[in-house]
Amino acid sequence: MTERTPLLHYRLAASRQPQKLSVFFGVVIPTLLSMFSVVVFLRIGFVVGQAGLCQGIAMFLVAYFIICMTVLSVCAISTNGALDAGGAYYMISRALGPEFGGSIGIMFFLANVCGCALFVLGLVEAVVATFGIPEDGVVLSASQVLPSGYWYSLLYATAIALLCLLVCLVGAHIYAKATFLIFLVVMVVLGTIFISFFAVGPRTITLPSSSSPTPNLTGPAFPTTANFTGFKLETLLGNLWAEYTVDYTTGTMMTFATVFAVMFNGCTGIMAGSNMSGELKNPSYSIPRGTITAVIFTFIIYNLLCVLVACSCDRVLLQRDYSFLRDINIWHPLVTIGVYCSTLSAAMSNLIGASRILYALARDDLFGKVLSPAKKTSHSGNPWASVLISWFLVQLVLFSGKLNTIASIVTIFFLLVYAAVDVACLALEWASAPNFRPTFRYFTWHTCVLGIVGCAVMMFLINAIYASASIAFMLLLLLLIHYLSPTSSWGYISQALIFHQVRKYLLMLDVRKDHVKFWRPQILLMVSNPRSSVGLITFINDIKKSGLYVLGHVQLGDLNTLPSDPLQSQYDSWLSLVDHLNIKAFVNLTLADSVRHGIQHLLFISGLGGMRPNTLVLGFYDDSFPRDMLIDPSMSTIQCLDHSDPSPPFDQNPPLFHFSPLRVSSERQDCGEFGDGKALGPQEYVAVIADAMKMLKNVVLARYFNGFDRSEFLSPSFFSPGKRAVYVDVWPVNLLRPDSSSYVDTCSLFLLQLACVLNMVRAWRKAKLRLFLCVEEGQSVRGSEEKLGQLLKELRIKAQVYPVPWDQQERAEEEEEEEYVNSFPSNATRLSDNYLLAVNQLILTTAQPAPAVRFLYLPRPPADTRRYATYLRQLELLTQDLGPTLLIHGVTPVITTDL
C-alpha cells in the first residue's frame, strides 16, 4: 500500500492540474480574431475605395511581408527551447537579457492594456451608432433607446470591460471557450458576406450624411446614393486604380500613407497566440503552426474581400459608406453582430495577454517589490491579481473616451515589440551560439533585418512623434532596469555577440603589423593580496592608456596533490574586486610551485594574439608594514573621481571578497603589494625582474603605493585658485650609473612616455610634469637644458626642465674611498651606502614641493646572480622615504618623432 501511495498522489496532483490548450484553441482562434477585429467588416471598402484594387492588394502584400518576417522570428525563438508564461516578453528577455526583456515587456504590457481599451471603445461606438439616441434627439429607429454622451459611453465601456474581466478571472479555459463561440459567429458572418456578393442583386444604397463640409461652396455636393452593381467588368475597371479623396468621417485628405496606416491596424495581433504560451500544451509546437495558419488564412480572406468588393461596388459607395457590407448582406444585423463579437474577442485577448505579461514580469523580479502583488495566482494557476491590475489600467485608459486618441500609439507599441522580436532573433543568429538551434529553420538573418526595417518604417509612417517618444521611453526603461535590477541567470546575448566579434578582431590584430607610433602600455600587475594593493591597482588603471590591463596572482601548490583546482573558486572574488574598484582589468590566476615560475607562466600565456602584456609591474620588496585598504575607512574615497558609477565604501567589507587576511607581524614583505615574504625571497624577486627583461618585457617596480590615495592629490579643491599644484617628477637618468647617463636611450624614453601617458589621463591632466636634468660639473647647463627642451618639443611632451648639478666636493666628504671623490662611479657594485643616501637626499631636497608620484630609472640586475641581494639593497636605499615611486626599465622603443 505504501509503495503505491506516491503514484496515487501523483495522479491526484495531475488531475488537479488545469488542462492545457491545443494549437487550434490556444493559438489559431485568438490570433485570427485579433487580426480580423473590425477592419474586415468596416475598413475593406475604405481601403479599396481610396487606394484602388491594385494599390490595396499591394498594401496587404507589404503589410503581410512585414508581419511574416516577424512571424518567422517568433517561430524560430519559440522552437529553440521550453517556453513559459509571458509570450513575446519571455522570448525577448531570455534571448536579449533582462534589460531589453524588461523594457520591451513593459511596452508590450502597455500596448495590450491600451489595445483592450481601444477595442472596448470601438465596441461602444458601434453599439451607440446602432442603439444610441442621436444628440439632436431625433429618433429614426425603434432600436435607438440608449442615451448617448461622454459619461454614458464611459458607463457602457466600463460594463464591457467588467464582462471581459469576469471571463478572464474565471481562467484561460473559459476564455478559450468564449473565443471559440465568438470565432464561430465571426466565421458565420464572413460566410454570409461571401454568399451575399453572389446572392444579392444590384441595389441602390442611401449613403450616410457627411460630417465634413463640402470642399468648396461652388463645387458639386456629395452624392446621397450609390450602387451595388453586382459583378461587372465596368465596376472592376472603375475600382482598379487609386482615387484618394476626403475621408467623409474626419474631413481629412487621404494619401497612401494614411490609408496604409489605417489598414495596418487590422494586421497586428500576431502575438495573441504567443501571449498564451503559459496555457499551451506544447508552446514550441503550437505557436509556429497556429500563428502561420492564422496569418495565411487572414491574408487570403482580406484579398478575396478586396477582389469581390472591387468587382461589385461603385467607387462612391466604397468611399462614402464604410458599413456598406451591412447594407448588402442577406440579413443586415449579421454584420453588426460580427463587429460586436470581433471587438469583444479582441478586447478579451488583449486583457488576458496583458495579465500574462505582467505576471511574467512580476515573477522575474525585474522591478523589485513594485510588481510583487501581481505574482498571486489561484489554485488553478490563473494570475488573478495581474488580471485585476490590468483591468484597472484599462479602466483608466477608457477615460480618454475616443478610439482615435490611442489608436496610433497602440499600433506603434505593437510594432516596437515586433521589431524587438526580430532583433532578438537576429542577435541569436549573429552570435552563432551552438545552443541556438531552433527546429523551425525557415528564417535567416536577412528576414530578421527586413522585419526590423519594415517595423521601423511603419512606426514613423504612422506617427513620427509617437514613434520617437515610444523609443525614448523604452531606452529609459532599459537604463533603469540595467542599473536597478539584480543580475539574472538567463544569459546575456550581448556577451555572445561581443565574444563573436572580439574573436574576429583578435584574428585580424596581426603582431607583425605593430608600429611604434601606435604603441600603448599593456600591463600585467602581479598582486599577492589585493587587501594591501588597492592604491597600486587603481594607479596602474590610470597609466594603462586604454591598453590591456591584467591582474595576475600566483598561488603556490601542486595540482597532483590537490583534489581540484583551487583557483576556480577565487575568480568571483577577484571579479568582484574589479567591479568594486571600478577599473577596467582582466584577472589571470595560476598555480605553480614557486612565485617565479608562476610569473613566467603568466608572462608566457597572458593575453591573446596581439593583445599580450608588454610591461610587468611588481610591488617593491621591503619591510614596510601592509595595510588592509579594503576595510580602512581612510581609503573610502579611493574610487576614481572620473567615474560616475558609485561603488561601496571601503569601510564596508563586501561579502564577495574572500581574500586571506594580511599578516600582522613585521616580517619582510613585498610592500603588501606583491607577495608574501615567506613565499618569495630577495634572490627570487630579483630573478623575476631579470626573467622579464630576458623576455623583452618592460619592468616597473612600485614602492610606497600601499597607502596611496589618488583622490588626495586629484580632488577638485587642489586645482582651485590658491591651492597648491600637483607634480609628477621624472628622473630619466640611471642614478646608479650617472657616468653613462643618456636622455635618449630606450629606458629614458620609456620613462618619458609613461609619464606623458599618465598626464594624458583626464584625472591627471592638470598635474605638471617636472623633468630633472642631471648635469656634471664642467658641462654647459644651458646647452644641456636647450638640448633636452628640443627633444621634448619633438616628442610633443609638455614638461618643465630643472637642471640638477652634481656637487662632487659635497659628495666627496661622504665617500669612503679616495678614488671615488674625483669621478662618477662606473660600476654599481662599487656604490657605497653613503652615495646612495646622498642621491636619495638630493632627490628629496631638489624636488620641492613634493610630487604625487616619482618616476625613476631602473637599471638592469647584475649578470652575477650573487649580487642580486646587493642590487635590491641599492634600490631600497635609493628610494627610501621618497613616497609613491615607480622604478622603470624599458626594453623596447615606444616613442617616435615621426608622423
Number of helices: 29
CATH homologous superfamily identity of the domain at 33-135 and 145-208 and 225-484: Amino acid/polyamine transporter I
In the CATH hierarchy, the third-tier topology of the domain at 33-135 and 145-208 and 225-484 is known as Amino acid/polyamine transporter I
Tell me the radius of gyration. Answer: 39 Å
Our estimate of the beta-strand percent is: 5-15%
- Beta-strand segment tally: 12
Mean pLDDT: 80
N/C terminus separation: 90 Å
Which CATH class of the domain at 33-135 and 145-208 and 225-484 applies here?
Mainly Alpha
Low-confidence stretches: 1-17, 211-219, 632-655, 666-677, 808-829
> How many strands, what sense, and barrel or not for the largest sheet?
10 strands, mixed
Compact summary:
It is built from 29 helices and twelve strands.
Walkthrough of the structure:
It is a multi-pass membrane protein. Residues 26-524 form the Amino acid permease/ SLC12A domain. One of its GO terms (biological process) is chloride ion homeostasis. Keywords: Membrane, Transmembrane, Transmembrane helix, Transport. The model is unreliable at 1-17, 211-219, 632-655, 666-677 and 808-829 (pLDDT under 50). The protein starts with a helix and ends in a 10-residue tail after the last strand. It has 899 residues and is α/β, with parallel strands linked by helices. The chain is 50% helix and 7% strand. Among the domains are: 33-135 and 145-208 and 225-484, Amino acid/polyamine transporter I; 711-715 and 722-812 and 827-898, Rossmann fold (3-Layer(aba) Sandwich), CATH 3.40.50. The longest helix has 35 residues, at 44-78. It is built from 29 helices and twelve strands. The chain is elongated. The chain has a ten-stranded mixed sheet, with helices on both faces. The protein has a two-stranded antiparallel sheet with strand order 1-2.
